[in-house]
Each structure stands twice: as C-alpha cells, then as structure tokens.
Design brief:
381 residues; mainly alpha; 6% strand; transmembrane; transmembrane helix
Length: 381
C-alpha cells in the first residue's frame, strides 16, 4: 500500500514522472477541441473522440484522487487516454496552424507548455538535466520557426520546426522511461517505477543487495524450507496453510500449487473467515498451520480474541499488536521449539526454518525476507 492519494496525486514527485509528462497537453487538447468543435453536428467524430478519451482520463483521475493505497503502476491505465489526447491535440493544433489566423499560436504554445512542464516534473531530482538542455534548445528553435511572424517561412523550415518541437516534448520522458532498464531506477519487482523515486530506490542507495531482482519462478531458501516443512507435516488437512493476507501467500503459491487459505484478502481487512469458522476448520482437521504477519491489519479470525480460542496450556500464542512488530526471539531451531511446544509453536521463519540468520537466507530485499517478523502457529484441534 502507498500514501499516493489526493487531488495532487498524479503530479506529485513520485507519480508525476511516471505518467504525467503529457498531462497538461492532454487537458489543453480536450478543452480546446470541445470549444472549437462546439457548433459542429452532434455526430461529429472528432469531437466524439476527444470526449471519449477525455472521459477516460477524467474518470480515472478522479478515482485515483479520492481513493487510497494507489500503487504507482496503477496509473498505467491513464496512458491510452493521455497518448490519444496528446497526439490528437498536436494534430488538431497543426491543422489550425496550416489554416492560418490567430489559432496558429496554439501549436508553438503547446510545445512550449509541454517542455516547461517537463522542467517542473524533473526539478526535484534533475535526473534528466542534460536532456532538459537539449529539450529547451529544440523548443526554442520550434517556437521561432512556428511563430506567426514566420508565416512566410519555407515549407521545409516549418516541417523542421515541427520535428524539433516534437523531439523537445519527447526527450525528457524518454530518458526517464529508459532508466527503468537500470536496476537502480527500476523500482521493486512488485511495484515497478522509473527514475530516482520511490521507497525501493532510496532503500537501494543504502543497501545495494536490495537491488537483486526477485526471481518469480524460483522461491527463496526460506520459502522453500517453509513449504518443505508444511508438506512433510501435512496429515490430510484440506489446507496446507492459512495466511493473514494475500501478501505472504503469493510467494508460496508461485513456488508450489498448494491449497492455501488466504484470510483477510489483499489488504488483510476482509473479515473472512470469522473466529468461529477458523476454530471449526482446525477442530475438524481441515487446517493446522496459520502464517501471521504484522505487515497487515488483523481480522476477526487473526485477532488475539479469535486465535485465543485455539490457545493451548503451556504454549501461549502471542500475537503482535496492531502497529507493533512481535518481539524478536533468539535463534532457536525448529526441532527445539516443537519439543518445547508440541501443540502450538511460534516460529521466527528467517531463523528457525533455515537455521541461518536473515542475511544468509536470501539477504535483505530478497523474496520473503521482508517479513522477518512473520510467525507460523501450528495448532491441533
């Protein structure tokens, strides 16, 4: 989940460089087209096209602005609308330029606006500062070549000016896009970004091993050890494991096609199953293991009250309080914990299941090591 929300979300320092390079041009294009084509027949296809893509852009922009938990890559859904409006707008302004009159100003003005907006988006980091220099030079050349005073310019000069203007609008966004080929600027495998933005990039600056990409077809050593243990100790239960949310389950499901009960859904807030339902699953030997994490909120089934139904004498099941990670334990082995607590265990996965500290079980940033405070509770009905 992220904090990207609010009416300025699409132009903030994280989301803006990912999607908003041509946003002002797109807005200018749709407003101008609707004004210029207002008196056309109701069946006017050009106006209908701008209405279609303008509606697409508006609906998604409003939804993102009023919702919470927006990942940056969600905004890719805006790309078709922005591309259509920006391209259609430049074509509309070019037609107006060729027609002559006061509307000739709109084409060079649109180019200048787009390059100026690129300066605004790139300014917090100056990531593409060298490209910005060339973008400004090309924009100035385009403006001088297309300005109304140059109405008698040769056709070749006008075409060259248009080409320079288009290049000026594309240079900086292209630089940011290409940066995603560098692991330093590609974001996390589950939340890709471009350029020096986002939590993953800033973490990687101080933790180079975090740059290692997650291998989606190969589980980590810790996940492999966990799956091996669960499969070996499964005694006919319907579910191999229940997880507190989808986040800790997806790594295991990618590794093996096993029946996993995902409690709480993606966010961890979905109230399923209820505490009595979870107790019934364990009592009827359909479920034996539950994976808990402090990275998602508790549900009725995973709250202290819900799992309190399953607490066994001599082996308390300590659950993390909301907002507080569970207390760390010493590097006990799984065998010792099972001997001390045969009916219900609390296991720090990164140590107990691999016999190694977290750094040896894949390193910071590797798949699975972000949940070093996860716990497995083994329960018998």
């Amino acid at each position: 989940m992220t904090g990207n929300t609010g009416w300025g979300m699409l132009v903030n320092h994280t989301v803006g460089p990912q999607i908003a390079w041509f946003l002002p041009l797109a807005v200018l294009a749709v407003v101008t087209a609707l004004v210029w084509r207002a008196r056309e027949p109701r069946t006017d296809l050009l106006r209908a096209g701008f209405l279609l893509w303008g509606g697409w852009l508006t609906v998604h922009a409003v939804v993102f602005s009023v919702s919470n938990g927006n990942h940056v890559y969600y905004t890719a859904v805006l790309a078709p609308a922005i591309a259509a409006l920006a391209g259609g707008g430049l074509a509309l302004f070019w037609s107006a330029y060729e027609a002559g009159g006061r509307r000739r100003l709109w084409l060079p003005s649109a180019i200048a606006l787009t390059v100026a907006w690129a300066l605004v988006l790139d300014r917090p980091t100056w990531f593409a500062s060298r490209l910005l220099v060339f973008a400004v030079i090309f924009a100035v050349c385009a403006a001088f070549g297309l300005w109304p005073s140059a109405s008698r310019a040769s056709r070749r000069l006008v075409q060259g000016s248009v080409a320079a203007g288009i290049a000026a609008t594309l240079l900086v966004p292209a630089g940011w896009a290409v940066s995603s080929l560098d692991p330093h600027f590609a974001g996390a495998s589950t939340s890709p970004t471009a350029g020096p933005v986002g939590e993953f990039h800033h973490r990687a600056l101080h933790d180079p091993p975090a740059l290692r990409r997650a291998e989606l077809d190969r589980p980590s050593a810790r996940d492999t050890a966990l799956l091996d243990y669960l499969v070996a100790h499964r005694k006919g239960e319907k579910y191999l494991l229940a997880t507190q949310a989808a986040y800790p389950a997806e790594r295991l499901l990618r590794a093996q096609a096993q029946p996993v009960l995902v409690m709480g859904g993606f966010t961890g807030k979905t109230p399923f199953p209820s505490a009595p339902q979870l107790a019934n699953l364990i009592a009827t030997h359909q479920l034996r293991y539950v994976l808990l994490t402090h990275l998602r909120p508790t549900t009725p089934a995973t709250s202290a009250h819900g799992l309190g139904l399953l607490r066994l004498p001599g082996c308390p099941l300590d659950l993390p309080r909301r907002g507080h990670p569970p207390p760390r334990e010493g590097p006990r082995t799984l065998r010792r914990q099972l001997r001390l607590c045969p009916a219900g265990v609390r296991i720090p996965l990164a140590r107990s299941l691999t016999g190694q500290p977290p750094s040896a079980a894949g390193g910071p940033g590797s798949p699975g090591t972000d949940e070093r405070d996860s716990r497995v509770a083994a329960m018998q009905g």
